[in-house]
Amino acid sequence: MSDTTETTSTPSGGSAAGFELHSGRGPFNAAFFRAVGPYLERSLRGQKRRVFAGLPREVVEIGPGVGANLRYLPRGGVLVAIEPNRYMHGRLQDSARGHGVRLDLRERMAESTGLPDHSVDTVISSLVLCSVGDPDVVLAEIRRILRPGGTFRFVEHVAAAAGTPTRLAQRLLRRPWAWTFEGCSCERDLEGAIRSAGFGRVAIERYRVHTPFLPFNTQIAGVARV
């Protein structure tokens, strides 16, 4: 993998994190995450510090956006960034330079990274599997590129328990939420998807954050090992 920034074209119909990228919402989401990124990071920092502790010098990230997780990579390391939303790229490149991380930027979908089989030790994601077209396909792709013993480390928001006020809010807001955030679903059982994806060992912690974005507040974080 290259030590320099590389940008490749998105396959036809591709988009950020693997769904159809709409011309107006791509720039909106880039601006939104630039604005609220520090607030979200404060809400998730404890879990990220735990899950992303001791990352190796080369990491693949699915949907890095504007670079919220670069702070967890070692200085001088390499981030292979699978980020098809080109409106995120400028801020991601600036952030990588600021953190002393070399960026290998690939404008591809999460379902098809283009990386060789069994070629990486670590894949990370945060707040991404909610938006991909098919989480099972993405998880299979992550398993394909991980070496034996490699890890997938994740921080994701998930569906709340049935019958709770949060689940009701997720149900009521699912359409405007998905339209606004490029297909993001707040009702996915991502814990179940990860546990059934064929990883050798899976450790997941459920927790809750407290933000005004109620559908976002039920979360999981963990590590899945090939």
Automatic annotation (TrEMBL):
Its keywords, alphabetically, are:
Methyltransferase, Transferase, Ubiquinone
- A single GO molecular function term of this UniProt record: S-adenosylmethionine-dependent methyltransferase activity
Q: Where is this region: Disordered?
A: 1-20
**Pfam families named in the record:** Methyltransf_11
Composition-biased stretches (Low complexity):
1-18
**GO biological process, alphabetically ordered:** methylation
Q: Which residues form the Methyltransferase type domain?
A: 60-153
Q: What is this protein called?
A: Ubiquinone/menaquinone biosynthesis C-methylase UbiE
Annotated organism of origin: Herbiconiux ginsengi
